[in-house]
Amino acid sequence: MSETSASAVADPNTHAATADGTTAGAPGGVRRRDFIDIAALSAAGVGGLAVLYPLISQMAPSEDVLAESTTDVDVSAIEPGQAIKSVFRKQPLFIRRLTDAEIAEANSVPLSALRDPETLSDRTLEGHLSLLVTMGVCTHLGCVPLGVTEGENRGEFGGYFCPCHGSHYDVAGRIRKGPAPTNLVVPEYTFNTDTVIRVG
Ligand code: FES
């Protein structure tokens, strides 16, 4: 028995239809069967959304997580030549105030001498050339470089030194020697106030 003939016998809606397959009196000639199909699909759509909503709302970051996603740091106490270590998204964050001599040194390096060419201006906020904010994560294999705490080895270029495999970063956090492929990462940040930066 063909599918068409089976439908004609088994489907009571077909018996209620007029000769041209429409429901008698239905505006626009919509077949009752079509109407039931559309209604069923609409119900499934609403049901699907009802199921998805709690899932999506559970997946949305909580306020705690959103708060954790930014870090505010008061940089007012960092003297020229000093650096501090903070934490941003569970990773070390280095914030360093460069001396005038360090700024001059960073600006004297030709980009052609750099493995990952960036100027100090590229790596700092406009008007804040002396404040260098970078992740404290070596771009080779993720060790935490030395050079924040006074007396630590700052490497051959006076910035940061990663002892794991010997990567040397300069005063602008740019890779100058060793296996690290790129400069220390500068995260997104802005000045919240004159003295507080918001990272993230
Ligand atoms: S992880 Fe820093 S040099 Fe290898």
From TrEMBL:
Residues 95-198 form the Rieske domain. Its EC number is 7.1.1.8. Pfam families: Rieske (PF00355), UCR_Fe-S_N (PF10399). Its main location: membrane. CDD domains: Rieske_cytochrome_bc1. It comes from the Bacteria. One of its GO terms (cellular component) is plasma membrane. Residues 14-25 have a biased composition (Low complexity). InterPro entries: Rieske_2Fe-2S (IPR017941), Rieske_2Fe-2S_sf (IPR036922), Rieske_Fe-S_prot (IPR014349), Rieske_Fe-S_prot_C (IPR005805), TAT_signal (IPR006311), Ubiq_cytC_Rdtase_Fe-S_su_TAT (IPR019470), Ubiquinol_cyt_c_Rdtase_Fe-S-su (IPR006317). It catalyses: a quinol + 2 Fe(III)-[cytochrome c](out) = a quinone + 2 Fe(II)-[cytochrome c](out) + 2 H(+)(out). GO terms for molecular function: 2 iron, 2 sulfur cluster binding; metal ion binding; quinol-cytochrome-c reductase activity. Binds 1 [2Fe-2S] cluster per subunit. Residues 1-26 are annotated as: Disordered. Keywords: 2Fe-2S, Cell membrane, Disulfide bond, Electron transport, Iron, Iron-sulfur, Membrane, Metal-binding, Translocase, Transmembrane, Transmembrane helix, Transport. It is found in: Cell membrane. Its cofactor is [2Fe-2S] cluster. It is an enzyme of class 7 (translocase). The keyword Transmembrane applies. The main subunits of complex b-c1 are: cytochrome b, cytochrome c1 and the Rieske protein. The Rieske protein is a high potential 2Fe-2S protein. Belongs to the Rieske iron-sulfur protein family. Component of the ubiquinol-cytochrome c reductase complex (complex III or cytochrome b-c1 complex), which is a respiratory chain that generates an electrochemical potential coupled to ATP synthesis. This is Ubiquinol-cytochrome c reductase iron-sulfur subunit. It comes from Qipengyuania atrilutea. The gene is petA.
